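Protein entry
_____________
===
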Amino acid sequence: MASPRLKYVSLGVLVFQTTSLVLTMRYSRTTLPAAGSGGGEGPRYLASSAVVVAELMKILACLLLVLKEHTSASPPKSSRGYSVRALSSILRHEIIHKPAETLKLAIPSGIYTLQNNLLYVALSNLDAATYQVTYQLKILTTALFSVSMLGRRLGVYQWLSLLSLMAGVALVQ
């Protein structure tokens, strides 16, 4: 079981990361372009470009982790270390040879991409505090759908937490 100190450090890091991400995205979407870049007002970049770059970075990180995991899992046959050929074989086996499993991820990934694009639109039109609190409504909707559609039961503290979240959203609005 994790120590209480680790829990609080993890919570602090998560709060810092989420807050800095929102503030950085908001700042980058609302600042005016530099004087020599054509003059007019508007965002510096397309939201879809930012989403694509973020997803490419995630893919690269995943590929590196898969490569590392499969290299360390089996003892190396030679002193070469990492094998791109082995990585290619793993990806072909997991993605190409399992098309049904790959297609099951198409709809959620498309919705996730749409959500990320809409986050940039929201940050371009809302102040950071309103955005951040309103964005937390996803917790409330997830809980309500979990109870109504999946038949899950929430404890008293969970319901109280959801009520305080709703109150916070109502106060900010």
Remarks:
- The two ends are 39 Å apart (CA to CA).
- Helices lie at 4-30, 47-73, 84-96, 99-104, 106-125, 128-135, 137-150, 156-172.
- The CA atoms of residues 113 and 172 lie 27 Å apart.
